[in-house]
Write a structure and sequence with these properties.
NADP (chains A, B); 415 residues; alpha/beta; globular; seven-stranded parallel beta sheet; homodimer; Gamma-glutamyl phosphate reductase (chains A, B); four-stranded parallel beta sheet; Aldehyde Dehydrogenase, Chain A, domain 2; glutamate-5-semialdehyde dehydrogenase activity (chains A, B); Aldehyde Dehydrogenase, Chain A, domain 1
Chain lengths: 415, 415
């Protein structure tokens, strides 16, 4: 057995215990984790300091360094979010569709944990705790495989969580961190079909594609968002400008930010200058179709087909003038990553057609795509945003970390 | 583009139309299919005759020949089941969890089709129609890849369905059959990530393993059932004997049949002869642990560890004497394929522990595992029995062939 196989077997054994340990025990473990994080700030900050020093040496950008950094206030924030997860309703054990069949069998569908969840992530060390406690609250064991840049931070956080879980009387192997941060360990995790029930990749498009295409373990695809805002001919133009400005510029690096603006031809000449005025506040680079350039003039670069496929993650926006709703929906359905799409309109039929025909996890009328988020949707917390159709679609909260089990009460029935 | 890629693209285009075509149009297509099957019996029976002739030449067993055969009565049965699917409630368009958020956004979760479903199957030609119409009712396009033994039958059935769908005004590419029945076409279907949303393999353990381990398209694992019946110390022994006899012998080739009998030591000497008396009616071969052999004598073969892992699919039963509930649950959770597991008991606490701790799609108290079936569970029809935890678990009916889409009604909200 390799080290990762042993870790898988230990997680599976822990998952069997978590399956039936009850909400009280899980909440006690979560609150113990919150306390332990607050009590061990120095240890966490020291480990994070080692990661930061390495990052500085390697010439990491200031923006990425900031994502990596942990300090007193950020650790308090992480501990707070753990307490919030403890306060959420536990989905496990809920039974629906229970009924008595004609033969007297009483059949119900009970929510149960998925089992062992593996998370492969590249991002900030807070994900280590956020992901672990959500999995734990839903009764799952979790195997974390974080990026090498944050390894010392992740390891310190995991050690603290494991000790707290043990102290609370649950198996510490409910949470573990893969100690090998080479590419090979990703491949090994993807092959652990005997131990891992679900694998969730969180990170850039390259990582996600690699995992989706190569994992033998079932995967939930997350995150890539090539989102569109379509300003239809009857739209309130001020609303349209505010929405595209918010969707593009409030946080361009996230997956629910807009990447392409589609504008109806009949309003393009009036609308595009209004939108540009707001987008210029952040020096947003526009890449437009010929009509866009004709209306807005020289500051706009010509858009290539490649631009329409791209999640820029930056202050860059592709723009296209379309002739009608049909062309807008066809464009969206061609280039979409099935994340979040919005129409701005005052036409009732257009709003309904957009909701019906656009194939995405979240489809908006007259609102910014930036709301696609577990907290904003009322799920309490999320472990990622699924862009696939199986199992979970859109923000994944506790419910999406569960499976079902049919329970059947009989009195000797045979078939 | 290869022929299969073209088929994928055509199915995807059809799926976009089915997504919004409405229940009435889908039901009209289903009823047209039922009529067309009845009207084209001669054509179907002629095509089936070609498959039967080839099967005879190749020396196929009588049992398999019977599974392949279509006749007047069987075609009527298939057409009837199509009408039953037409009569089921359409899950598409149902909206749940709709609420107004503090910022005024109205957010709901709407049931939508999965998109394009591919089914790879080895079994009887009726699967061609059953699977296609369930997918269609839930608004999905389907790509069928059946076994080469039934190719002429499958092709005739598919042609008739496509013509009926077209006649009813829906795109005929909603249903199509892969024309290449070599192993290579399975691999090609598994790689069609751009076109296929979900792949469901139906067949033997070898096919399912190959698909689960190699598909780039998301898979729902089905069917393999290494099911256990545990007769606990307080069980009604007559009930226990009837249940194991039914679970093993009523139809040994199916996935919800029992493969291993576990018996509590305290009742083994009384119970095993009672069970054997019934099992002997079908000349069931018993493979037992040493204690079983001691109790039942010479007719019982010694069980190997391999036997406890095996889905015999035949009148063969592994038997093991266990010391208590703990050992029984541990045995089940070690050897289970997570399909269906049953306890026979009169002890309340034992029944609850078995329901809680056994990790399977369907867990029974005092009933035969043979009830794990979409019809028996009240789903109306099923496309297979999922033994994985993601997306669907247990019998998969129409609801399990759907995904969700969040629909959001705003009034200019930005974040």
């Amino acid at each position: 057995m390799t080290a990762i196989e042993k870790q898988g077997a230990a997680a599976k054994a822990a998952a069997l215990k978590l399956m039936t340990c009850g909400t009280g025990a899980k909440n006690r473990a979560l609150l113990a984790i919150a306390r332990a994080l607050a009590d061990n700030k120095e240890k966490i900050i020291a480990a994070n300091g080692a990661d930061m020093a390495k990052a500085r040496e390697s010439g990491m950008s200031a923006a990425l360094m900031d994502r990596l950094a942990l300090n007193d206030k950020r650790i308090d924030g992480i501990a707070d979010s753990v307490r919030q997860v403890a306060a959420l309703d536990d989905p496990i054990g809920q039974v629906d569709k229970m009924s008595t069949r004609p033969n007297g069998l009483i059949i119900g569908r009970r929510k149960v944990p998925l089992g062992v969840i593996a998370i492969i992530y590249e991002s900030r060390p807070n994900v280590t705790v956020d992901a672990a406690v959500l999995c734990l609250k839903a009764g799952n064991a979790v195997i974390l495989r974080g990026g090498k840049e944050a390894f010392n931070s992740n390891n310190a956080l995991t050690d603290i969580m494991r000790a707290a879980i043990k102290e609370a009387g649950l198996p510490e192997d409910a949470v573990s961190l893969v100690q090998d941060t080479t590419r090979g360990s990703v491949d090994e995790v993807m092959a652990l079909t005997g131990y891992i029930d679900v694998l969730i990749p969180r990170g850039g498009a390259g990582l996600i594609r690699h995992v989706v295409e190569n994992s033998k373990v079932p995967v939930i695809e997350t995150g890539v968002g090539n989102c569109h805002i379509y300003v239809e001919s009857t739209a309130d133009l001020n609303m349209g400008a505010e929405i595209i400005y918010n969707a593009k510029c409030s946080r361009p690096s996230v997956c629910n930010a807009a990447e392409t603006l589609l504008v109806d031809r009949s309003i393009a000449a009036a609308f595009l200058p209004m939108a540009k005025k707001l987008l210029d506040q952040k020096n947003t680079q526009l890449r437009g179709c010929p009509e866009t350039i004709e209306i807005l003039g020289g500051g706009v670069l010509p858009a290539t087909d490649e631009d329409y496929w791209t999640e820029f993650g930056d202050y860059i926006l592709a723009v296209k003038v379309v002739s009608d709703l049909d062309e807008a929906i066809a464009h969206v359905n061609k280039y979409t990553t099935h994340h979040s799409e919005a129409i701005v309109t005052n036409d009732y039929a257009a709003s309904q057609r957009f909701l019906d025909e656009v194939d995405a996890a979240a489809v908006y009328v007259n609102a910014s795509t930036r709301f696609t988020d577990g907290g904003e949707f009322g799920l309490g917390a999320e472990i990622g945003i699924s862009t696939q159709k199986m199992h979970a679609r859109g923000p994944m909260g506790l419910e999406q970390l569960t499976s079902v089990k049919y329970i059947i009460y009989g009195s000797g029935q045979v078939r």
